[in-house]
Amino acid sequence: MLPKADRGRLDYPCLGLTRLAAQKPAGAVEWPKGFDHVDKTILVGHGAEAFAALAEGIMTWQIQQRAGLQVTAPPRAIVGARVVSGFGVGRLRLPVPCEVVWTVEPQTMSGPDGAEATMAGFGYGTLPGHPALGEEAFTAMQTSDGGVHFRLLAFSKPAGFIYSLGSPVTKLTQAGVTRSYQQAARALAGGF
Q1: Domains in the chain with CATH codes
Q2: 99 DSSP 8-state letter
């Protein structure tokens, strides 16, 4: 396990765990006790052009924007960048602040199955004011057969008692946002 986060105001366990998980097959990482987790991978396209478009879309917040979130962030995901996404409609929008804790610009590395793959992506952790504690990551991977995959990884739990009262709604919301991220990834890659 990775140590508890101690950078700035990140206060959840296992800082960077989503980066480790991104390089392993689903189910190969032990998630922190008491945290729900998401590990979803989908095929979104084929070829270098689809990979480049998805990787760039991830690194420039297009995944979040195309999923319907308002995003206030630097132009590109870099470690230490503070990000505020907004859930909701109009003035009834809940700000969800995060900090980028790791990034990988497109590079060849060992993929989850141990074979060489080209990967890119980032992970961000929750900051005070976020309704959850945890981390979420977005990765693009092109496998040796040319397939382009989008993977969403996250572990989280309610940030406090009030938010835990809304936990069932939060889980439904997360499932909906996950589907929106997947649709955005397909659109970016020009895929299926």
Answers
A1: 17-23+36-189 (3.30.530.20)
A2: E
Q: pTM of the prediction? A: 0.87
pLDDT in tens, 13-30: 899 999 999 999 988 999
- Which residues have a Cβ under 8 Å from the Cβ of 21 and sit 6 or more positions away? 28, 29, 39, 137, 153
Burial class from Cβ neighbours inside 10 Å (0-12, 13-18, 19+) for residue 95 reads: middle
d(CA 16, CA 25): 16
In this structure, the chain runs to a length of 192
Q: Distance between CA 127 and CA 134 in Å, rounded? A: 9
Q: What is the pLDDT of residues 93-127, one digit of tens each?
A: 677 889 999 999 999 988 777 788 999 999 999 99
3-state SS class at 172: helix
Q: Is 171 helix (H, G, I), strand (E, B) or coil?
A: helix
Round to whole Å and give the CA distance between 43 and 46.
8
DSSP SS3 for 183: helix
- Per-residue buried b or exposed e for 61-92, using 16+ beta carbons within 10 Å of the residue's own CB: bbbbebbebeeebeeebeeebebbbbeeeeee
Dihedral sign from CA coordinates of 112, 113, 114, 118 = negative
